[in-house]
């Protein structure tokens, strides 16, 4: 089985470009949240993951989208994961659809206009930070609503130790849920952002946090709490990044070497984490979520 990537946002990058880079890294399947055609592209199995809601919070025709999709996943991103009322409404609507809702846990009342992680990066830069408690609040809310509705959830972009603790607790209680972390959260920290002097290339969709938080993510890969590791890729052009940090769009780092970087970091910093666990999170873990 080849590697599988999930929740890729093409942005300004073409599907052919992405497929070429994916194939070079041994990636067999990619689940994409941008509107794309399903099927083989450049030897890579491309699967469109339907979006449950629009950026304005309007609900899409989820039942129809699922019927024509090759996956049971529905994606809501931060827009769905940060709004209690919207999430409960969506879960109520799709409670009989046998689907899994994927979202980025958040509390938008705390994170609106945030640029970096709350902590050293926000203190040094003076920019508004994403509080870790906003993510853990979103995690707890999503899992409680999942228990209420019976709708399975996949929590994407987990970046804090507290979120991991909550997910582990719900899994231990038997709740059917899964989670993923992005490669940048495992390979980079807020210190890399600070040392870059606020290079927009480090303005990742999931904010870079402390080394302590990163250590908890690696440990969660080792003990099986984390099911999936993804690229976290959002296609941003060089032109879009040639602006001050606060004006730059959130995106992902280069797609070319993200898998190699993960294995290099595991070897150099976390050799106690079984290599097989990382391979699982890059292959059979995401394959099971996507339905390959």
UniProtKB/TrEMBL annotation:
GO terms for cellular component: cytoplasm. Signal peptide: none annotated. GO terms for molecular function: allantoinase activity. One of its GO terms (biological process) is purine nucleobase catabolic process. This is Dihydroorotase.
């Amino acid at each position: 089985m080849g590697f599988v990537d999930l929740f890729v946002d093409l942005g300004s990058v073409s599907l052919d470009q992405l497929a070429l880079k994916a194939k070079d890294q041994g990636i067999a399947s990619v689940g994409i949240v941008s509107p794309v055609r399903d099927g083989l592209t450049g030897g890579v199995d491309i699967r469109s993951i339907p979006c449950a809601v629009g950026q304005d919070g309007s609900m899409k025709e989820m039942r129809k989208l699922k019927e024509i999709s090759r996956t049971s996943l529905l994606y809501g991103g931060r827009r769905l994961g940060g709004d209690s009322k919207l999430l409960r409404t969506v879960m109520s609507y799709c409670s009989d659809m046998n689907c899994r809702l994927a979202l980025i846990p958040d509390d938008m009342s705390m994170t609106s206009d945030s640029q970096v992680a709350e902590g050293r990066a926000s203190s040094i830069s003076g920019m508004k930070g994403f509080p870790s408690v906003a993510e853990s609040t979103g995690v707890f809310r999503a899992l409680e609503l999942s228990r209420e509705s019976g709708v399975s959830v996949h929590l994407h972009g987990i970046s804090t130790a507290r979120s991991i603790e909550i997910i582990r607790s719900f899994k231990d209680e038997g709740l059917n849920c899964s989670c993923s972390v992005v490669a940048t959260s495992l390979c980079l920290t807020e210190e890399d952002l600070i040392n870059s002097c606020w290079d927009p290339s480090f303005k990742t969709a999931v904010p870079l946090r402390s080394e302590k938080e990163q250590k908890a993510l690696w440990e969660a890969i080792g003990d099986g709490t984390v099911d999936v590791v993804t690229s976290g890729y959002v296609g941003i052009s060089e032109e879009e990044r040639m602006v001050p940090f606060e004006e730059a769009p959130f995106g992902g780092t280069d797609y070319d070497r993200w898998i190699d970087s993960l294995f290099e970091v595991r070897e150099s910093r976390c050799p106690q984490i079984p290599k097989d666990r990382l391979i699982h999170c890059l292959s059979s873990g995401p394959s099971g979520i996507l339905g390959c």
